[in-house]
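DUF2277 domain-containing protein: structure, please.
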Amino acid sequence: MCRSIKTLRPPALPEEATEEDMRAAALQYVRKVSGFRAPAAHNREVFDRAVDEITAATMKLLDGLEIRGAARG
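Here you go.
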């Protein structure tokens, strides 16, 4: 997979991941899967929607994870 996507959960990331962190990871994922660094105008809407949906799924995932030995916020 894309090596530039970093782990966003503690303890790999000492502070809580921000929405910006999650969006950057989602963008890297969509770029990798689509094969486009930047989509053509006719693909922009579906590209951006995919980034939004993956960002939301990432937020939901990180919110639901239980990390042993870590306090939940």
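Notes: Residues 19-62 form one domain.
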